[in-house]
Automatic annotation (TrEMBL):
<protein>
    <recommendedName>
        <fullName>C-type lectin domain-containing protein</fullName>
    </recommendedName>
</protein>
<dbReference type="InterPro" id="IPR016187">
    <property type="entry name" value="CTDL_fold"/>
</dbReference>
<dbReference type="InterPro" id="IPR016186">
    <property type="entry name" value="C-type_lectin-like/link_sf"/>
</dbReference>
<feature type="coiled-coil region">
    <location>
        <begin position="32"/>
        <end position="62"/>
    </location>
</feature>
<dbReference type="InterPro" id="IPR001304">
    <property type="entry name" value="C-type_lectin-like"/>
</dbReference>
<dbReference type="InterPro" id="IPR050111">
    <property type="entry name" value="C-type_lectin/snaclec_domain"/>
</dbReference>
<feature type="domain" description="C-type lectin">
    <location>
        <begin position="96"/>
        <end position="236"/>
    </location>
</feature>
<keyword id="KW-0175">Coiled coil</keyword>
<dbReference type="Pfam" id="PF00059">
    <property type="entry name" value="Lectin_C"/>
</dbReference>
Length: 243
């Protein structure tokens, strides 16, 4: 049996205790070493994440700068460079009731005209009120005055009765409202032209420019004609929101 001994220098531990202490110390050193390595690895991961965050922030800043530049460039297209007055419509389009309207300079068939309006981000014009009718009819009137050399007959709008004769629908899907109709006298008459091989009749609607503005019944400018006829056309799209 081991016996504790004392010397003048103090307590002397048995060999077994010293051995256990060494094992414990070595294990502690190993744990500390592993913890140190793990901390180093975590620090490296943290540094990597911080660098990634910086890189993403720089990329986002660059993208915001590009987007801002593109947006400003686009917005400048809505502004007059001389007066610095800005519109909510692109050049060549006229604003009315939070919408933008365009009158083509080239005649097309009704279907082709609609496709061109769709390609420009809109559709053929829809008349929802007397104010709409006045605005669009005036556009055709002003165009004729400004281009007297052209043979301007009328301009397509987004109204047709192709599916069923007399059942008129707008390109928006809405049915023609009886309180918002602006037919010319004796129209619609669905007259069939002699040259029509299929005798389809007149299923598409145009606005015929009036001779004068503001006279009695000047708003009554609608005429149904053959959809295959070549006419100018009126497009519409939503006005831009400038924020």
């Amino acid at each position: 049996m081991a016996v504790q001994r004392f010397s003048c220098s103090g307590f002397i531990a048995p060999r077994s205790i010293v051995k256990n202490l060494n094992v414990t110390l070595n294990e502690s050193l190993r744990v500390i070493s592993m913890a140190s390595a793990e901390n180093k690895s975590l620090r490296q991961l943290l540094d990597n994440e911080q660098q990634t965050t910086k890189d993403l922030a720089a990329t986002n800043q660059q993208q915001r700068s590009i987007l801002s530049s593109t947006r400003l460039s686009f917005l400048w297209r809505l502004c007059n460079s001389d007066t610095l007055q800005c519109s909510r419509c692109l050049p060549g389009w006229a604003e009315h009731d939070s919408r933008c309207f365009f009158l083509s300079s080239v005649p097309q068939k009704w279907e082709v005209a609609r496709r061109e309006c769709l390609d420009m981000g809109g559709d053929l014009a829809v008349v929802s009120s007397a104010a709409d009718q006045a605005f669009l009819t005036n556009m055709t009137f002003q165009y004729v005055r400004q281009h007297p050399q052209e043979d301007f007959l009328s301009a397509w709008i987004g109204l047709q009765d192709m599916v069923k004769e007399g059942a008129y629908f707008w390109v928006s899907g809405l049915k023609l409202h009886s309180n918002v109709t602006y037919w010319r006298p004796q129209e619609p008459n669905n007259a069939i032209a002699q040259w029509e091989a299929d005798k389809a009749g007149q299923d598409c609607v145009t606005i015929v420019p009036p001779d004068h503005i503001g006279t009695e019944d000047w708003l009554n400018s609608w005429d149904d004609i053959v959809c295959l006829g070549q006419r100018h056309f009126l497009c519409e799209t939503a006005a831009f929101i400038l924020v």
